[in-house]
Design a protein that fits this description.
Radius of gyration: 27 Å
Order of helices and strands: HEHHEHH
Strand content: 5-15%
Number of helices: 5
Helix content: 55-70%
């Protein structure tokens, strides 16, 4: 009878051991996931609140960008990213939302450079600047 109980306990011990190992593996994977996501979110937040130009002075490109009246902020950000004037359309959109230029970008053709800060681009494309630049 005692031997039968030992075999039963050994059989039951293996699934318990495998279950414990699986739990520890899942916990380790979750910890690694949260660490990597935390780093990614920190980098995103840093790029939003510590803006920089895409290129250093003397190394940038200049592009003529045409904004139409039916373009959304997201479309403008995608256009700037497609022209390689900014690094990320998402970051630009968030920066625009937190800036004084939110809702003030106007239609027109603008000369922009990848050496400009995102806020400088916003200022150039804003309604307050449109009258003085002639569009």
């Amino acid at each position: 009878m005692k031997r039968r109980r030992e075999v039963f306990n050994r059989r039951q011990g293996i699934p318990d051991l495998m279950g414990n190992i699986a739990k520890y593996v899942v916990i380790a994977v979750l910890i690694l996931f949260f660490i990597s996501e935390t780093k990614r979110m920190y980098a995103l937040g840093y790029s939003i609140f510590s803006p920089k130009a895409r290129d250093r002075a003397g190394e940038g490109i200049t592009a003529s960008v045409t904004i139409t009246s039916d373009m959304s902020d997201a479309a403008i950000a995608r256009l700037l990213a497609d022209e390689d004037l900014i690094e990320s359309s998402l970051v630009f959109r968030v920066q625009l939302k937190f800036s004084e230029y939110d809702g003030k970008l106007t239609a027109g053709t603008y000369e922009l450079s990848s050496e400009m800060l995102p806020e400088e681009m916003m200022e150039r494309m804003s309604a307050s600047n449109a009258e003085s630049d002639g569009g």
